[in-house]
Design brief:
Helix content: 40-55%
Number of helices: 26
Number of strands: 22
Strand content: 5-15%
Distance between the termini: 57 Å
Structural class: alpha+beta
Radius of gyration: 44 Å
Largest sheet: 5 strands, antiparallel
Length: 637
C-alpha cells in the first residue's frame, strides 16, 4: 500500500494520508520515559500465536495510543501500569480478531488499506485524531511528518492498520449475523407500549402508627425487660447510629501539583520550581521544632481560598481522603503531618481532636425499646389491614375498605356538644343613662322645697317618662348556638391525614419501575398479566411502604404504529444486541475494551489455549518501580 501511495505521491488524497499517519504516530509515541513502553527496551508485553507483539508492533504505538487519552505525566502515575496493560491487551485482541477474520476468508487489499488510511469516512479515527487532513483533504506531507515525529516507519504503521481493518471487518461480520424476528420485536413493543389504569392504596408506616395510641412508659419499661436480647441485637447491628465518630480540626498548607492552576501562590513559592520541590521546601520548614505554622501557611500555601487561613472545621475522620486518614493516624494536637493526594500535597497541623464516643446501651435502651415496639405494632397492623382489604376487594370499593379496616372506630374530628344560647342586651348604655337620669331627678327633687309637692310630682312624672322611653328603645339580641369539644378516648385522625386511594392512568409497566408507584419486579409482572377490573391477589413492598393495586383498565399496543416504525425498531434492537453480544466496535478498535459476551468468549478461549498471552510480570514489576519512586519522592532521606 505504501508503494501505491508513493506512486501516487502527487495525489492530494495521498498527501492527506501521510499527514494523518504522521500525526497519529506523534501522539501515539509521545515523549520518552524510563518506565514507559519504549522500543529501546523491547520488553515483550503481549504474545500472539507465539510471536511477541513488540516485534510486530513497536512500543511507540502503545505509547501513542495511551497519550491519545492522557498527557505524558501518566507514565509516572501509579495508574499507568494498569492503563498500559489494558492497551497491550487491546492490541492483542486486534491481532486475535484479524486472525479470526482470515480464518473466515476476509482479506484487505492495498486499495482497501489505502482508503482506510486516507478517507476519514472509512472509520479510521487516526485521520481526524492526529490531523492527517489539510483543508479536509488528506496530506501526504503531514502523514510523513507525523510518522517521523512518532519514530515509526510507514511499513510498521500500515502493517498494524491492516490488522485493525481486518479486525473491524470481522466485528462487522459478527454483527451482520445478528437478526431479530418481527414476532420478537412485536412482543417487545407490546410490552413497552401496553398501558394500564390503576387504583392504588399506599399504606405507609407513618400512617399506620397514627392509628395507635402512644406507647406508655410502662409498656416501654416492660419491653426493655422482656426484650433484652432483641434490644442488644438491634444496638449491635446499628452501633453507628449511637456513635459520634472521631473528629479532627486542622490547619492545612496546600501545594498544588499543577502550578499553572494556582490562583494565590504562597509568598515564598518560586514559580520555576516543580511541585515536588515546592512541597519539600515547605515541608522542611513546617516540620522544624516550634515552627510558626501560621507563618509557614502564609509563605507556602497555594489554596484558592485563603479567607480561613487553611483552617477546617471539626471533620469526621472517616469522610476524609484516605491519604489524610493515614497521615493523621496516631497524631496528637499540635503534631504536623504530610500527605500526597492526586492533585496536591498537604502539610497539616492538628488543632483539635475528638476521639470516637459510643453511647452505652443503658442510655438508649428505652429509645430502642420504643422503636422495636412501634415497628412490630406497625407490621402486625399492616398485615391485618392488607389481609382484610384483599379478602373483600372483589365486592367492595377500595376507598370503602380503607375506612372499614384501617380507620374503623377512629374519628375524623373530636365529638362536640352544643352550649345553650345566652340572651344579651345590646342597649346596656341606654339603660345606664336612664338610671343616671333617675338618680339626677331624685336628687333634684330632694333639693326642692318640701312643701312644693306639685313640682316634685311633676319632676317624678317626667323622670318616669324618661325611663319608659329608654325601655322602649332597648333591644335584646339572641346569640348563635356554640359547640365545645367533648373529651374522648378514641383516636382522632383528620380527613386530610388519612390514607387515600390514588388513581394512575396509562401507566407503562414494561420495566420493574411503575410510574407513580415505584420499583417492584413482581408488581410489574402481575400488572401485565392481570385482567381489567381486577385487584391483584397480594400486596407489594415498595421501600418501607405496602401497596395494594387494582387494575382498572388496560390498553394494548397499537399494531399500526408498530408496523409504521418496524424498521427503526429493528435497527435499534439490533444495535443493542450487537453491543451486548460483541461490544462497542469503535471502543474495541481504539483499545478501550467494552467487549460483549461473544467477544469475551473468543478472548477467554484464546488466553486459555495460549494463543493470546499478556505478560503480567512486566506490569507487576512496572507498578512496583513506580510506587517505589513515589515513596522516595514523598519521603526523601
Amino acid at each position: 500500500m505504501l508503494q501505491d501511495l508513493r506512486d501516487q505521491k502527487n495525489s492530494a488524497l495521498i498527501v492527506i494520508l501521510f499527514a494523518v499517519i504522521i500525526i497519529v504516530f506523534i501522539f501515539m509515541f509521545g515523549l520518552p520515559s524510563k518506565d514507559s513502553l519504549s522500543s529501546k527496551g523491547q520488553t515483550d508485553v503481549a504474545v500472539f500465536n507465539g510471536e511477541h507483539l513488540s516485534r510486530k508492533v513497536p512500543h511507540e504505538l502503545m505509547r501513542t495510543m495511551i497519550l491519545n487519552q492522557y498527557d505524558d505525566s501518566i507514565f509516572n502515575n501509579v495508574q499507568y501500569p494498569q492503563i498500559a496493560r489494558q492497551t497491550a491487551e487491546g492490541i492483542g485482541v486486534i491481532y486475535l480478531l484479524a486472525d479470526e477474520a482470515r480464518k473466515a476468508g476476509l482479506r484487505v487489499s492495498d486499495e482497501d488499506l489505502h482508503d482506510y488510511i486516507t478517507n476519514w469516512e472509512s472509520g479510521n479515527a487516526d485521520i481526524l485524531r492526529y490531523g492527517f487532513l489539510q483543508k479536509n483533504v488528506f496530506s501526504q506531507r503531514s502523514y510523513n511528518d507525523a510518522l517521523r515525529r512518532m519514530q515509526l516507519s510507514s511499513r510498521d504503521y500500515e502493517s498494524y492498520k491492516r490488522e485493525e481493518l481486518l479486525a473491524r471487518r470481522y466485528l462487522t461480520l459478527l454483527a451482520s449475523s445478528i437478526t431479530i424476528s418481527d414476532a420478537s420485536l412485536w412482543d417487545a413493543y407490546q410490552e413497552a407500549n401496553a398501558t394500564a389504569s390503576l387504583e392504588v392504596i399506599r399504606i405507609t408506616p407513618e400512617n399506620v402508627l397514627k392509628t395507635f395510641k402512644p406507647l406508655t412508659d410502662e409498656e416501654i419499661r416492660a419491653f426493655a425487660t422482656t426484650g433484652k436480647a432483641d434490644i442488644q441485637a438491634f444496638y449491635d447491628a446499628n452501633i453507628a447510629r449511637y456513635t459520634t465518630p472521631e473528629k479532627v480540626k486542622m490547619q492545612q498548607i496546600v501545594i498544588t501539583k499543577q502550578f499553572g492552576t494556582v490562583q494565590n501562590p504562597g509568598a515564598k513559592t518560586g514559580k520555576t520550581l516543580q511541585s515536588g520541590e515546592r512541597f519539600q521546601i515547605a515541608k522542611k520548614e513546617a516540620l522544624e521544632p516550634n515552627v510558626d505554622f501560621a507563618q509557614a501557611y502564609a509563605d507556602y500555601d497555594e489554596s484558592d481560598d485563603k479567607s480561613l487561613q487553611g483552617m477546617t472545621g471539626l471533620i469526621a475522620v472517616e469522610i476524609m481522603a484516605q491519604e489524610i486518614q493515614t497521615a493523621i493516624e496516631g497524631k496528637k494536637v499540635g503534631d504536623v503531618f504530610t500527605a500526597e493526594l492526586g492533585d496536591r500535597y498537604v502539610i497539616g497541623k492538628i488543632v483539635e481532636r475528638h476521639e470516637t464516643v459510643v453511647k452505652p446501651l443503658d442510655e438508649v435502651t428505652n429509645e430502642i425499646a420504643r422503636q422495636l415496639l412501634e415497628e412490630r405494632r406497625i407490621a402486625a397492623k399492616t398485615r391485618e389491614i392488607t389481609t382484610n382489604i384483599l379478602a373483600q376487594a372483589a365486592t367492595t370499593p377500595l376507598a370503602e375498605l380503607i375506612d372499614k379496616t384501617m380507620y374503623a372506630g377512629i374519628l375524623t374530628e373530636a365529638p362536640k356538644a352544643p352550649v345553650a344560647p345566652v340572651a344579651t342586651d345590646d342597649d346596656n348604655d341606654a339603660d345606664t343613662d336612664t338610671a343616671a337620669d333617675n338618680d339626677a331627678n331624685a336628687d333634684a327633687a330632694d333639693t326642692d322645697a318640701a312643701n312644693d309637692a306639685a313640682d316634685t310630682d311633676a319632676a317624678n312624672d317626667a323622670a318616669a317618662g324618661t325611663d319608659a322611653a329608654a325601655d322602649t328603645n332597648t333591644a335584646i339580641a339572641q346569640a348563635e348556638p356554640q359547640y365545645v369539644d367533648l373529651p374522648t378516648d378514641l383516636i382522632i385522625i383528620p380527613e386530610f391525614e388519612r390514607t387515600k386511594v390514588a388513581s394512575f392512568n396509562d401507566v407503562t409497566a414494561n420495566t420493574n419501575y411503575i410510574q407513580g408507584i415505584g420499583v417492584n419486579d413482581d408488581l410489574a409482572r402481575d400488572i401485565r398479566a392481570a385482567a381489567p377490573n381486577t385487584v391483584l391477589a397480594q400486596s407489594y413492598a415498595i421501600g418501607k411502604d405496602t401497596v395494594i393495586v387494582k387494575v382498572v383498565s388496560k390498553k394494548e399496543a397499537d399494531r399500526a404504529a408498530f408496523e409504521a416504525n418496524l424498521e427503526a425498531l429493528r435497527s435499534g434492537a439490533i444495535q443493542a444486541r450487537v453491543v451486548a453480544l460483541i461490544g462497542d466496535t469503535d471502543a474495541i478498535i481504539n483499545l478501550k475494551g467494552g467487549y460483549g459476551i461473544w467477544l469475551e468468549q473468543i478472548i477467554n478461549d484464546a488466553m486459555q489455549k495460549g494463543t493470546l498471552r499478556i505478560e503480567s510480570d512486566y506490569f507487576t514489576k512496572l507498578s512496583t518501580r513506580i510506587q517505589k519512586r513515589q515513596e522516595e519522592q514523598n519521603n526523601p532521606q
